[in-house]
């Protein structure tokens, strides 16, 4: 019998008083895709960091790679010699360098070659890309690629880096920032990789359907312990949810999924608390729409359709834009709008990339969450530190930021808990308009229900919410209305009975055919209906 790709046992890791991993055992058979799931903060990244030599585990942990015992902690970089490579969420590409340079630089350095022939390197990179059926120019700077192409380049680079041993490719939430159409390509590469029976893949994701569709087995961590390892073919999303959050919370999540959040009260006196007129940018073709008080308006489309550019434009962070934004009676010109002006008008922006734009990693959670209200805590000349501490503690409790330790550095929180802290930071200001991009990306199933509920309550308090997302389930659950964009135009508006996952996915996938002008082909749903 072939030895497993890796076998970890007795793995514990303590940070100060906190036990991030507690006697974990993980075995990944050769030639399989293995899922690693768990709530935010359950220990997934810590486990990966032990495997890549970033963290030293507590004494007693053992690691076998292809049946051979390996000493822990691993020295820096040693994981590569064991045939292990990893793709982190931020992809780790250098945008100014070409695709070939990004893909081959590590190998060049590893081989310690004095002279690198870039013509040869481009040819080799081109071969790798073509082998996986990708039409990407190896000479193109990475900055010019689409999100999907960038993610695939990072993944193929990691595949190349596996070297001759080809033991284990670790994908840490690879689809979080990947547009929908990119995930199919990604999983095709994964299937190709494990097909030869020797290489394995460890997939970390919060998307339960995706994990069940593409893995052979799944290990679930809860509070740093293994809650269970199950065969993917014999379990379902409900079974996984129960392992992830425990039976009680799973029942609450199920109830939430069945009933959905209560629809926010519809505005009585007319729509249009927020009016956007002739919003124009390099990607937006002069679109106009309005959002009522208490309404959640979704924006979606394919990557590059312009839907992701709307929110930064309404916050003065969208570069070259023009058009007008009216919030109640306050009129703002988008060409001269700045983030501070937007904020002063009651417009807050919760960005998609919270690691980059959401907070200051080195500062405490306390400082991060109180930033927008700091000037109100104390006098003009002196900050009231007790009030600041009290407010931070209240926020962390109300938004369930875990672990409850407001003095901890923001950057050491797990991804989902960072998102909760960013939401706490902005929603405490009682905004009139909330601009939210992909609010539940990378957050676990329990926290997702929490965020949905939070959005509903914020809308009920009278805010107008704009939600840009590529997650149809989320849009159908939380929004009152959704606009679908294609090539900078609004091509469809869905609400009521039409606002469900099937219709949304149909409209988005066929969105370019819905552009103004003649429509030669019916959409898939229309074909089915006829
Ligand atoms: N460098 C560190 N210093 C202190 N505590 C840490 C550090 N890294 C992680 N932790 C803590 O260890 C626990 C596990 O965190 P980890 O990042 O492994 O969770 P995760 O399962 O990857 O979460 P997510 O799904 O949100 O990314 C968390 O409570 C986290 O705050």
TrEMBL record:
Q: A single Pfam family, by name?
A: ABC_tran
The highest taxon in the source lineage is Bacteria
Q: Which residues form the ABC transporter domain?
A: 6-512
Residues crossing the lipid bilayer are: none
Q: A GO molecular-function term, please?
A: ATP hydrolysis activity
Instruction: Could you list this entry's UniProt keywords, alphabetically sorted.
Output: ATP-binding, Nucleotide-binding, Repeat, Transport
Has keyword Hydrolase?
Answer: no
Supply the name of the protein.
Monosaccharide ABC transporter ATP-binding protein (CUT2 family)
Give the organism the record lists. Answer: Kineococcus rhizosphaerae
